[in-house]
Every structure is written in structure tokens, then in C-alpha cells.
Write a sequence for this structure.
């Protein structure tokens, strides 16, 4: 079935019973692999159809103004959802069933490690996705106008370094470039690999240097906030190496 203003018919492979449906103003039909019964649906103003791997029954859905379809790995049944104005689809690893969600104005998708089922969430105007270590199930949330991931406040240039057994991240104050135990200090909080909670920062802090034994924390030494920013008075354990 040819739509108006097209010059070529749909090329049908043997054992295919339905033709490719072509949208207006496209010049090439959808190329269908054998044993596939549904054609690729092409959006307007695109010039290339979706390339479907064999044994995949749903086509890649292409958004307007994109020129490349989503490349689907075999045994994956859902296509990559591409946002408008992006030129590259999300690359999905095998055995991953959800695609990377790309925000507008980003040019690179989130790189997902195998055995991770949730993609990295990218903020607007960032060009690099969050790099997730294996066995970590939540991605790094990136602030706007930063080029590196990580749990940084706005306008920071260095991310938090996560150890593989630490499940929560260091929160950095705005306009500082290092992890803080105190606002605008030049020394950072060093996290031991067996520690899962972090130092919380306030406006004014006094801290006690401890000498722990066997890399364990002395729970008696705490940070005291002189003038806490919030109404709640909190005590936070210093985590020396």
C-alpha cells in the first residue's frame, strides 16, 4: 500500500502477509526481516526505517526529527524511547528490559551496567550520564550545568567517590569542590569502606579528631553543631579512615 508522494512500493519478503505502511514524504519503505508480521512504523520527516532484528515482534518507535532508529538487541521486546532533538538511541545491554530515559538536549544515553534494571537519570544540559558501579541499584543524580555525576551541590566540579560497599553518597555543599566536614573547608570527609552513613554538613561545625582502632568508628566522638541551619539539632558521627 503506497501513500501519496512516494515513488517506491513496499518490498515484502516471503512468508510476510502484510506490507510496510509508509508515511507521507518518505522515499524508502520499511525493510522487514522474514518471520516478522508487523511493519516498522515510520514517523514523518524521517528518512530511514526501523531496523528490526529477527524474532522481535514490535518495531522501534521513532520520535520526530530523529534520523536514526533505536537499535534493539535480540531477545529484547521493548524499543528504546527517544526524546525529541536527540540523535542517538539508548544502547541497551542484553537481558535488560527497560531502556535508558534520555532528557531533552542530551546527546548521549545512560550507559547501564549489566544486572542493573534502572537507568541513570540525567538532568537537563548535562552531557555525560551517571556511571554506576555494579551492585549499585540507584544512579547518581546530576545537578544542572555540571558535567560530572554525583551528588554534588550546584556549581561543584568534583563528584563523590563511592566505594563499592557504600550505599549512600556524600552530599556536598554549594560552591565547594571537595567533600566537606565543614562549610568551605579544604579537607574532605574520608569514608571507610564499611561505613554506610555519611557526615551531614551545617553552617558552623566543630569536630573531634579521633584515632579509631581497627578501622572502626568510636561512637562517643560526635560532631557538635554550634549554629545549625535547620531547627533540628543533630549530631553526626565523624568517620575517620
Amino acid at each position: 500500500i503506497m501513500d501519496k508522494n512516494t515513488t517506491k512500493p513496499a518490498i515484502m519478503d516471503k512468508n510476510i502477509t502484510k506490507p510496510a505502511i509508509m508515511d507521507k514524504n518518505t522515499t524508502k519503505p520499511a525493510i522487514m526481516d522474514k518471520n516478522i508480521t508487523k511493519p516498522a512504523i515510520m514517523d514523518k520527516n524521517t528518512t530511514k526505517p526501523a531496523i528490526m532484528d529477527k524474532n522481535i515482534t514490535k518495531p522501534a518507535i521513532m520520535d520526530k526529527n530523529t534520523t536514526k532508529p533505536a537499535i534493539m538487541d535480540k531477545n529484547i521486546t521493548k524499543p528504546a524511547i527517544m526524546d525529541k532533538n536527540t540523535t542517538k538511541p539508548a544502547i541497551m545491554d542484553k537481558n535488560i528490559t527497560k531502556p535508558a530515559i534520555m532528557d531533552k538536549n542530551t546527546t548521549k544515553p545512560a550507559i547501564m551496567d549489566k544486572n542493573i534494571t534502572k537507568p541513570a537519570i540525567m538532568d537537563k544540559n548535562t552531557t555525560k550520564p551517571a556511571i554506576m558501579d555494579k551492585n549499585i541499584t540507584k544512579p547518581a543524580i546530576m545537578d544542572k550545568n555540571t558535567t560530572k555525576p554525583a551528588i554534588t551541590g550546584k556549581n561543584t566540579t568534583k563528584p563523590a567517590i563511592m566505594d563499592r560497599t557504600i550505599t549512600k553518597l556524600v552530599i556536598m555543599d554549594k560552591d565547594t569542590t571537595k567533600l566537606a566536614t565543614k562549610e568551605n573547608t579544604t579537607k574532605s570527609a574520608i569514608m571507610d569502606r564499611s561505613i554506610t552513613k555519611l557526615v551531614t554538613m551545617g553552617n558552623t561545625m566543630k569536630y573531634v579528631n579521633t584515632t579509631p582502632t581497627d578501622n572502626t568508628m568510636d561512637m562517643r566522638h560526635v560532631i557538635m553543631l554550634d549554629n545549625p541551619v535547620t531547627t533540628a539539632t543533630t549530631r553526626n558521627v565523624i568517620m575517620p579512615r
Remarks:
- Residues 150-241 form one domain.
- Confidence is low (pLDDT under 50) at residues 10-17, 19-25, 29-241.
